[in-house]
Amino acid sequence: MARQLGNHDAAWWLMVAKQAKFRLRNVSEILGRTPRTVQRHVRPLFGRSAQEWLNERRLDALPETLNRLGSAKLADDELGFSDPAHLSRACKERYGNPPMRFLKRISAE
Q1: Residue 71, phi then psi, degrees to nearest 5
Q2: Whole-prediction pTM value?
Q3: At what angle do helices 84-95 and 72-79 cross, to 10 degrees?
Q4: Phi-psi category of 45—alpha, beta or left, where left has phi over 0 and alpha has psi -120 to 50?
Q5: Could you say which of 1, 5, 31, 42 is the most buried, measured as most Cβ atoms within 10 Å of its Cβ?
Q6: Tally of structural domains, the chain
Q7: How far does the chain reach from its first CA to its final CA, in angstroms?
Q8: Containing domain of residue 68, as a range?
């Protein structure tokens, strides 16, 4: 994708993260770099580890993804959660409700 990883902005990194289903291994494969190289570029840009940044962006994408797909299982697949229980725990921690209850809440707003 690019030779100079440090020359890209947050929007570019987010696009790559979405393509990679928010998985560091997939990001590194897309970029043709090792996971460690990706980590070295992400930390100075975002002030956190690559995995922390990817996890945060995954959770940021959850409301729109749930709303668009209408299914926790489909959102789980699209966002690259390891399993439905992981999605449920993460959603409860971040948004206070399990995925489908959260979807009902945001749909009502």
Answers
A1: -150, 130
A2: 0.87
A3: 100
A4: alpha
A5: 42
A6: 1
A7: 39
A8: 5-108
CA 107 to chain centre: 21
- The CATH number of whichever domain residue 54 belongs to comes to 1.10.10
What is the identity of the amino acid at 109? E
Name the token pair of 82.
Answer: 């390891």
**Residue 105 C-alpha from the chain's centroid:** 21
Report pLDDT for 5.
Answer: 66
The encoded tokens of residue 87 equal: 């999605």
| HSE-CB of 1 using CA atoms within 13 angstroms | 20
Of 56, 97, 77, the closest CA to residue 106 belongs to 97
Rg (C-alpha) for the chain, rounded Å, is 15
**The token pair that represents 34 in the structure block:** 């090792």
The overall longest dimension of the chain from CA atoms, in Å, is: 45
Please give the structure tokens belonging to residue 100.
Answer: 């489908």
Q: So what's the pLDDT on residue 109?
A: 77
- Judged by DSSP in three states, 97 sits in coil
